[in-house]
């Protein structure tokens, strides 16, 4: 991770770290407040629940007793040793540095592409309000985010084994990064400098995952408890605490007899994007990963703004397609509106009592719509860009499907 | 048969542009031929005509067998055009339009007119009359275009039958002509109230027509052709379909290539980032002419890349603001407001006998006398400051001990609670006393609060209220019917005491300032506050209902109080201090209603407590304050009975009040408007800003250039000219000239605008912090400094912005270009619209008032070169600014009430609200929403004075010229 340390870079990193630490120290209540917001912490990423698990763990009980804690046991070890605020700030900085390096080394075969300034990418990640809020709210999604960013970073810089190991960590922590395996493999295999065989990569991924899972047996007694409350909770969506996603309301409303079927449908829908996008955009595996992250932020079981911050961390690397997008203003406005209206409607529902659950759910739909517009629009722009490379004479002209 | 698909650019691309092709639907509707349009128009017109209730179109025009005589033969023609209602009409037209369009395309407009007004319209009607009226001797009226639908379906089915006689399903050959009959059966089974007979008549006529037996009824083609030629119908009527299809083609013109022009993707109204390439309006103008000749439709002439469209949004947004204000002004009318009613049946207001009276009056007097003995200090002015405070505390202690003793004598558990708040350097302290009556028939999980403050919100001594509360406590204790605990609370004041108590009740208090409660009961269901600040008899009850932050109690509680007071007790009620400005007789007049409405909104917008009940609303406990006012003949026992009856109603509740409205505006004690009726006004005002933001965003992406001189791009120009010439050959030359403008798209540079806006919005937290945390001594000076600073800041910013090129350390922050100024304004208005929308969901009235106060911000703009106009704009902005508001308020109060420190008193109240009630509405609304938007707007205006040499050198003259053109539009 060699990045040049000029004044600008240092000031951005130092500023971001100071900002976070300052808020942690000066407004300790704010962190608790943010940690209890449903947009920031979900059942699988809440720091409060982690503390509950930690308490049980430190007193020699299984952290999964009581059914509150749904996260991986390795996190308990980390927070047993290290102060939480520092961990979150450090991970944010680490993510930014990795994104910085990825952007510096990125080369996209497009005529519009200009060499990126990694510092700006890092700044866009660090000063993104969603990133700041999820860091201050101590959402443990950041560990998964770090794992994914590390996987991409290592895949790009030619460390296939490390990439596989990072992806395995991500999968171990929250499962869905496993879906990023195909584009990551593609990215590694496209990288000609480091020849690697597909079989060995997959084997190393499975091996790493198995090793991580086996640590559970050392850390806690109940391996099956762990499986059912960590992965089972994500697979079958047992905890229906409201969040910004689409699952909770649907599975509150669904009749029990259809529940299993629709859980299958929802997961199939999520998985369905992987193959198609990887195949269609095989020349740009990084964009496949970016788009998938955007889709996961909409369609995964317990999404939060931390997932969006990850997507928005990668997206600025494609700023060259900005002129080709068509609805960015609309998407940005919709996201802005739903960002502010979401907490307002949640307040009306839970505290003021003058609204109801439909208020908040409607806003989560709008939020998902905004993200969908963004993902769809950037996909369109990248495809258009590809097409213009094929047919340079059509650059800037209007096309229409007939 | 189907109209030709219009495809222009021969590219076949696998890029999906849209999932549902709205433009195709639109073009289909725009290309409907003339007769179909007329029929559609007639059907809709009849439907609209039928909306009134005076004269029934249906009775006038339906085909009723008994009604048809020689004088009413018109019914044979009118009945297919009239429908029972909207859905009937929609369904019928949706079925009819495609069929009729095909028919007209085949037969021509004149033929269709003659046929449908003649034989094809009348034969089915005559058949129906014959069968229904003569043979069956029935008198069922029929209506609607469905008879034509079946007619046309039948004739189409015959046509199909001639080509494909059978369809084979599972080995059976089914003749295709049977399909309309099948449909007929299905319709009459599935859809209620369909006339099987009427449809059958249509079908039969359709078969006859399709088989050619009644073709002879069609007017001879020669005549039609003569008419068409003589009157030049083809040239005069738009969308006319010629009789003679061989010569002119089906529509009289060749299909033009105008629906998809090459520039569509890059049109200026598209909201994306469009880069690269030059788009010329002329290119589309050429193809447009071909269309305009055929259509003649003025709306279709306004295509989406027409520069005239760019002039609409400012007017649209002005219209929105105007509409929002007019909407509010309409609300007091009877048509838009509603009579209040009780939704929750369990309340049963006024259904019980009340027994508070008789000897209770003696008890009440005794209590009043006892309390008078311990309230000495408040009546006698003390000597010096410190001793009087000491004395005051001693008296308060004595008084509380006495109240506690009285409660205990009545057999209730009591407790006390101390509190001490600090705001603006002043201390507000006191001690609450309360008693809990445990419900004889309840489990203590629910409770009602009765509250009487020692001093009411106007700082008057509640001389009768407190004794009344205690005698009610004694009286209630003897009843065994309570199913909810009743808490009797006496607070020393009306603003801090209730807040301290309710906070501590829910354990959300700061233990350093407020003591814990030692005695608690169940979840609070409702609270009623008693305020009777004099000893004589009263006339009416004033009901205060608005809470902190504009929260309102459930309308059912308010209605219960009004129903009981006026219905059961015969005591008049008033709201929003209406007794001070209207007389009793004119209460239901429009001006009085409007005044109460606006006062209610103002009180809601301020979000301050209007009585001791206000603090309860924060915890979603419905609460009201009853205040005795006026000199009349109602005594304290009547007040007591009212409270007793309200308590009995609340005692009936099975669940928390939820049935009725939580969002409403009252304009009389028995009239209200609900959220569905009033919310749109605030929303459209907020939308006005968003419109402007989108409009400016679009503008900021283009340089608009008028093509007067020969310009840059030679080849594009050449190309356009050639196309023009080609088009000119086909089209008459009398078409008006479309203004020739060119949009050059440019990339938007967002870093500076976003940074500037973020900076200004974050900086607005500084005055918020200062004004809510400073002490009273430094408050005036700080406030005036801040106000002065805010007035000067825009000018400083405006002068600093063009000097930015000197800032070499951060290359992103160069001097803003003209487009960036537009962007700054766009984003600022976007944020304003966004905040106002969010605010409208939380505190409607505040959002409404802020929206109106911000109106000038949407319409002022920088105007380089017109410095005097800019000065005028700046002055206008100064008037409509938070500072202007404060100054106006100060001057008004100074001249009206002669007080000197009005502003400071206001600031102190707001700070108190912020610190104690957490009433954030006005501070946040004014300082964090209005002020930043104002500073941005004022900076833009001020920058007109500083757009000196520096700026113009960096701009191409063409662009500068283009800007001026745009500026003209946006003002």
TrEMBL record, chain A:
What kind of membrane protein is this, topologically? Answer: Multi-pass membrane protein
The processes (GO biological process) annotated in the record are: attachment of GPI anchor to protein; GPI anchor biosynthetic process
Localization per Swiss-Prot or TrEMBL: Endoplasmic reticulum membrane
- Pathway recorded for this protein: Glycolipid biosynthesis; glycosylphosphatidylinositol-anchor biosynthesis
Q: Where are the transmembrane segments?
A: 12-28, 74-99, 120-143, 163-186, 198-219, 231-249, 261-281, 287-315, 327-352, 358-383
Q: Does the keyword Transmembrane helix apply?
A: yes
* Signal peptide annotation: none
GO CC: one term? Answer: GPI-anchor transamidase complex
Q: What is its main location?
A: endoplasmic reticulum
Cited Pfam families? PIG-U (PF06728)
* InterPro entries recorded: PIG-U (IPR009600)
Return the similarity comment.
Answer: Belongs to the PIGU family.
Mind telling me what this protein is named? Phosphatidylinositol glycan, class U
Automatic annotation (TrEMBL), chain B:
Gene Ontology terms describing biological process: attachment of GPI anchor to protein
Q: Does the keyword DNA-binding apply?
A: no
Tell me the SUPFAM superfamilies matching this sequence: Rhomboid-like
The family database entries (InterPro entries) matched by this protein are listed as: Gaa1, Peptidase_S54_rhomboid_dom, Rhomboid-like_sf
Which GO molecular-function terms appear in the entry? serine-type endopeptidase activity
UniProt keywords, alphabetically: Membrane, Transmembrane, Transmembrane helix
Protein origin, superkingdom: Eukaryota
> Keyword Lipid biosynthesis, does the record have it?
no
Entry membrane topology:
Multi-pass membrane protein
**Which ranges does the record mark as transmembrane?**
34-58, 78-100, 112-130, 142-158, 170-191, 197-218, 312-333, 678-698, 750-771, 783-801, 822-840, 846-863, 875-897, 917-942
The places in or outside the cell where this protein is found are: Membrane
**Boundaries of every Peptidase S54 rhomboid domain copy:** 72-214
GO terms for cellular component: GPI-anchor transamidase complex
PANTHER family linked to this entry: GLYCOSYLPHOSPHATIDYLINOSITOL ANCHOR ATTACHMENT 1 PROTEIN
Name this polypeptide is given? Glycosylphosphatidylinositol transamidase
State the species of origin. Answer: Capronia coronata CBS 617.96
